[in-house]
Specification:
By secondary structure, the protein is mostly helical. It has two domains: 10-97, no CATH class; 113-191, no CATH class. It has eleven helices and no strands. It has helices at 2-6, 23-35, 39-55, 66-77, 93-97, 117-128, 133-153, 160-170, 187-190, 192-207, 212-222. Helix 2 runs antiparallel to helix 3 (39-55), helix 3 (39-55) packs across helix 4 (66-77) and helix 6 (117-128) packs antiparallel against helix 7. The radius of gyration is 36 Å and the shape is elongated.
Length: 223
């Protein structure tokens, strides 16, 4: 009895599983395949292991790269020690340990953050257009949107000259409305839609509440 307890194999004493998802049995099958001296026999065993690995992932059978993925995982489980003929390119340990190139993430640090990054893109598009009524209309639309964004950030009124100066700065001097006779929309008109939405939402929320006060007053009159 003592001898049987001593022969018990604990997971903490076993070699670490390279791909734990396949379990200990697949790992032992791969280790046994590595120990086979005859290469032809190793190839047969490797194909059998691939079939077992495929049966463990039936939901991936329709994936186009399913078979190449299994063969890659077979070599990874063997720690790239398995010498067999693969129908696909054999990966190397260096390729597995190679770090991917970092993705370039746009780092935008706008001076006037309350306008957002889309405003700068719209300004760049307006600058690229040819002069004409269409370009002037786009520039005025951008200026009005900038004014609305400014008012959402700062509830106080803002002069059109401030917006024109910011537009001149963000366009790097290519759009100049400082001496323009154009007037932007009033602050009350720009924020009217927001107020209308807030009032409608509050009224809809109040409509769902029962008027308990009126009902109690009605009961008192009856008494």
């Amino acid at each position: 009895m003592i001898q049987e307890v001593a022969d018990i194999e604990y997971n903490t004493e076993r070699p670490k599983l390279i791909i734990p998802e396949y379990g200990r049995h697949i790992q032992k099958m791969v280790d046994q395949a590595i120990a086979i001296d005859d290469k032809e026999e190793r190839n047969k065993v490797a194909k059998s292991i691939i079939n077992v690995m495929g049966n463990l992932n039936p939901h991936l059978r329709d994936v186009p790269d399913f078979q190449p993925m299994l063969w890659d995982q077979l070599f990874i489980i063997s720690d790239f020690k398995l010498d067999v003929d693969s129908p696909y390119p054999i990966p190397t340990k260096e390729q597995l340990l190679e770090h991917p190139e970092p993705l370039g993430y746009p780092q935008n640090f706008p001076k006037y953050r309350f306008y957002g990054n889309n405003i700068k893109r719209m300004i760049d598009v307006a600058v690229s257009w040819e002069d004409g009524d269409k370009k002037e209309g786009l520039i005025l639309t951008i200026a009005n949107h900038m004014k609305k964004s400014f008012l959402n950030w700062n509830k106080d009124t803002v002069e059109d000259g401030v917006i024109f100066n910011h537009l001149f700065e963000l366009s790097e001097g290519k759009i100049n409305l400082k001496n323009s006779d154009e007037d932007l929309s009033d602050a009350s008109n720009l924020l009217k839609t927001k107020k209308r939405y807030s009032s409608s939402s509050s009224s809809s929320s109040n409509s769902g509440k029962k008027n308990y006060k009126s009902s109690t007053n009605r009961n008192r009159k009856r008494n």
